[in-house]
C-alpha cells in the first residue's frame, strides 16, 4: 500500500471512530456531518467524498462495530473455561458495552433501512457463532442433549426478531433490555445450572 492509500485509510479510520463515539452517545439523528468532521479533524467534504452521506457512514460504522464485537466473542469461544463462565462473561461484557450506548443509538439500529445489514450479520455470522457456543454447552453437559437444533434456531430467531422492534427501545430502559439478554441465555432460572447439569 502506497503512502497516499495509507493516509486515506487512516483518515477513514479516524472518521469512523469519531462517528462511532458520537453515534453511541447521541444516535444518528442528532449528530451532524460537521460535528463528526470536527472530531475527526477533517473537512465535511472529505467525509462526503469517502462515504457519500451520513446514512452510508452509519452503515459502515455499524458493520465495523458488529464485526469487532463478533471477533471478541470468537476469541471467548476458544478460551478454556466452563460453558456457564463463558455465558456469564458474555452477559457481563454486554452490560459493560451497554453503558456506552444510548437509546438513541439503539433506535438508529432498529431503522428499517438497516434491516438487510443486520439480518445478514445475524444469519451469516452471529447465529453460527451462537450455535457453536451451544454445541460447546452440549459437549460439556450443560445444554439439554435432547433439545433439537431446529428448536434452538427458532428460539434464537424469535429473540432476534424481538430486538428489531423499535418500540422496545423507546419504551424500556437499558436494565430491562439487559434482563432480556439474561432470559435469552438462562431462561426463567436466572442462572446457569451448577451442581445438577441438565441432561
Describe the secondary structure blueprint for this structure.
Blueprint: H1 3-26, H2 33-40, H3 44-51, H4 54-78, H5 83-98, H6 103-109, H7 115-140, H8 149-162, H9 166-171, H10 174-186
Helix pairs in contact: 1-2, 1-4, 1-6, 4-7, 5-10
What can you see in these coordinates?
The chain has 10 helices and no strands. The longest helix is centred in the middle third of the chain and has 26 residues, at 115-140. Helix content is 74%, strand content 0%. The chain is mainly alpha-helical and 199 residues long. It has a domain at 55-189. Mean pLDDT is 81; it is low at 193-199.
Find the structural class using helix and strand composition: mainly alpha
Number of helices: 10
User: Rg, please?
Assistant: 19 Å
Task: Work out the helicity level.
Answer: over 70%
Question: Looking at the structure, what is the overall shape?
Answer: elongated
Number of strand elements: 0
Mean pLDDT: 81
Stretches where pLDDT is under 50 for at least 5 consecutive residues are 193-199
What is the CA–CA distance across the termini? 54 Å
Strand content: under 5%
Biggest β-sheet, characterized?
none
Sequence of secondary-structure elements: HHHHHHHHHH
Task: Kindly list the characteristics that best describe this protein.
199 residues; disordered C terminus; 10 helices
